[in-house]
Every structure is written in structure tokens, then in C-alpha cells.
Write a structure and sequence with these properties.
14 helices; alpha/beta; 13 strands; 6-stranded parallel sheet; globular; 7-stranded parallel sheet
Length: 376
């Protein structure tokens, strides 16, 4: 078995945490001497994501290949699947690593087709939440989890980004019949350097995708409630993009917060951190969000919902954790802003975070999984 691999990462949407995860992995894998490529959707993302692709393209020996991929299952999937399969076949991967529901399905199906043509391909799957967010009691949930059980027979290795994700898989899909392991998302060493808050910073920052799953509506409602509780209007910056963005503009206007809330397009997280004193992650569901790790590594205080793998980052009973509820969030915002220095002291220790959530640790553990899958 050669030490140098041809690795292809397949995923649908080049935005948010999955894209961040893949970028970090490819950087570490290229540094280790592997040939790496990316296959993903061409209809998702904007100028910010295009800039990130431009930064990556020269280091990826197998290139960046973008083709239309539907978010939901539909007739267009057949044409999309055929285009994607032809791209992957030409790349001749040793490892085909699928991320998210769509990327995971493509990686396992196409990896299996390549095996039929006598190619030796390791098929790995990282759910990143994905279909695991569905309710197992709904028709849609039952369908997706039945598909996950079926797809397990075409999977060589499962990689979970949080213990919550692994427990959810076991509960909703079943005990994995294949090797699997937990590998936390990791940050680069430079991301553990503190970010200084700008002199004219706002009180609060939301950064992320503009969709209800991530809770921007909870943040806006809590902002109005906290202002009344705190005795003055609180200021906020909301960074991100998404189909629901116009609705959040309308919510801000309806609550009379236009003069106190500034919307900005996607930007690097560390640039956004300087724009506010306190960062809020009000998600309704998560797997292991990078934004929480990035915030804490930058030495910024935060409030986050205790969903998915987020509690695994914090100490037990941390005051930073709340339910995804605007009333509870408003109360915690007011308390944190009343004594910022004392609240900042309650955040997790930076040295411990670095030991648990370093990109070098993540990449090394995933490389072990690749070689284990190839040895099966």
C-alpha cells in the first residue's frame, strides 16, 4: 500500500461547516503529500466562497470540479448523478470521502460502481448532521433512515464529528455494522490567537447561514427582549447569507430595530469577531459547529444553544449554554453584557481546547481511518 493517496472529497453545498471541514482536511492532506480533489455543487455559494476556491485551486492536484447538484431528491438527480460519477471516475481516487447526505450517497454509490470495474476505492462517509436532523417518526425521516441503513452495506468507514452525532445515528439508523470513529473538527494553530474587539464594536454578533435551522429569528427576537431588559437598545451585527435573509430583514423592521442591527455579507469569522463584544450561536440543531470552536479559540465570549455536539465543547453546567429560546437567550445576553470581564472568565480554557480540537489531530485521525478502510 503506497503511503501517498489520491483523495476525492464529495459534498453538495460549498458553504458553512462542511466546506470549512473539507478545506482544513485538504490543506493538511496536501501537506502530508497526498493528491487531493473536490467535487461539489456549482449552484451554491457566492463571492466569498469563490474567493476561497481561488485560494485552494493551485494546491489541489486533482482539481476542483463543480457541477449542479440538487438539495432535495428529485428527477434532476439522475442527470446530476451521472455527471458527478463521470468526474469521479476520471479522477481515479483511492479514497472517496463523502460529506453530508448527498455527498455521502454519491461517494458510496459511485465508489461501489468503481469497484465493479475493478478499482480499489475506500468509501468513507461523514454525516455532518445532514439527514440525521430529521424526526424518525415522520415519513421523510423513516425514508432517509431506511436509506442510511441500506447504504451502510456500501460503506467502508463512518466518521462522526461529535459523540452526539454518533449517538443519534445509533438511535435513528441503528448500530453501524462497519468500522466507525469519532473525530472532532479541528482548528489551525493560528486560530488560537486572540481577536481584539474593535473600539466601535456592536454589543452582539450573529454569524452563519441565514436559515431558521441556525436560529437568526431567535437571535432577533432575543435582541428586542434584551434591550428592554438591559435598559437601552442593544446593537448587533448579522453576518451571512441565505434564502431566508429577506425574512430576517423584515423581522428586524417589524420590531423597530433597523437603526440597531447591521446586516453584512459572508466574511472570514475572525474578521467578524472584531465587530462585536459577544458572539451568539442560537442554532436549533447542529452536529459540531466550527463557529463555536473558532469563537472560543479567538478568546471571545459567547452564548450558544445546547444542541448537537455543542455541549461536548464546554464544561459541564457552563453558563454559556441555553435552550434555543428567545426569552432565555435575552436573559443570558443581559447578564453577560452587565459584566463582560467576569463572563469572559467563564469560557473554556484555551490550552485544553487546542489539545482537543487541533486540525493536526483531526487530519491524523482521519488519515488512519483512510488506511484502515483500504485494508478491509
Amino acid at each position: 500500500m503506497a503511503d501517498r493517496l489520491r483523495i476525492v472529497h464529495c459534498f453538495r453545498s460549498p458553504v458553512g461547516g462542511i466546506f470549512r471541514h473539507v478545506r482544513d482536511l485538504t490543506e493538511a492532506q496536501v501537506a502530508a503529500g497526498h493528491s487531493v480533489g473536490i467535487v461539489c455543487d456549482s449552484t451554491t455559494g457566492g463571492a466569498f466562497e469563490e474567493h476561497l476556491f481561488d485560494q485552494m485551486k493551485d494546491m489541489l492536484a486533482l482539481g476542483i470540479h463543480r457541477t449542479p447538484m440538487q438539495r432535495h431528491v428529485g428527477p434532476g438527480d439522475l442527470a446530476s448523478a451521472w455527471r458527478t460519477y463521470r468526474i469521479i471516475k476520471e479522477l481515479r481516487p483511492d479514497v472517496l470521502h463523502g460529506h453530508g447526505a448527498k455527498g455521502g450517497a454519491y461517494a458510496r454509490l459511485f465508489g461501489s460502481l468503481l469497484r465493479v470495474s475493478r478499482s480499489r476505492v475506500a468509501r468513507l462517509y461523514s454525516p455532518h448532521g445532514g439527514s440525521l436532523h430529521y424526526d424518525e417518526n415522520t415519513t421523510t425521516g423513516k425514508l432517509f433512515f431506511a436509506l442510511e441503513r441500506f447504504m451502510a452495506r456500501f460503506t467502508d468507514y463512518l466518521l462522526f464529528v461529535s459523540d452526539y452525532e454518533r449517538r443519534t445515528y445509533r438511535h435513528k439508523v441503528g448500530e453501524p455494522p462497519i468500522p466507525n470513529t469519532l473525530v472532532y473538527n479541528g482548528l489551525r494553530a493560528t486560530e488560537f490567537e486572540p481577536v481584539i474587539t474593535a473600539p466601535d464594536a456592536a454589543d452582539l454578533l450573529y454569524i452563519g447561514m441565514m436559515r431558521d435551522l441556525k436560529g437568526p429569528d431567535i437571535f432577533i427576537d432575543a435582541l428586542a427582549l434584551a434591550g428592554a431588559r438591559f435598559g437601552r437598545p442593544l446593537t448587533a451585527v448579522m453576518v451571512g447569507d441565505g434564502d431566508d435573509l429577506p425574512r430576517y430583514h423584515g423581522q428586524v423592521k417589524r420590531l423597530g430595530l433597523e437603526r440597531h442591527v447591521r446586516f453584512l455579507p459572508p466574511m472570514p469569522a475572525r474578521e467578524a469577531f472584531a465587530l462585536a463584544a459577544l458572539i451568539i450561536v442560537p442554532s436549533r440543531a447542529e452536529a459540531m459547529p466550527y463557529i463555536v470552536l473558532e469563537t472560543l479559540a479567538a478568546g471571545k465570549p459567547m452564548i450558544a444553544t445546547a444542541v448537537g455536539g455543542i455541549p461536548e465543547i464546554f464544561d459541564t453546567g457552563s453558563p454559556a449554554l441555553i435552550r434555543p429560546d428567545p426569552i432565555e437567550l435575552a436573559e443570558r445576553m443581559s447578564r453577560a453584557l452587565a459584566d463582560p470581564a467576569a463572563y469572559c472568565d467563564l469560557m473554556p480554557d484555551g490550552a485544553n481546547l487546542k489539545a482537543r480540537f487541533g486540525a493536526d489531530v483531526m487530519a491524523a485521525d482521519i488519515e488512519k481511518a483512510y488506511f484502515a478502510a483500504l485494508d478491509r
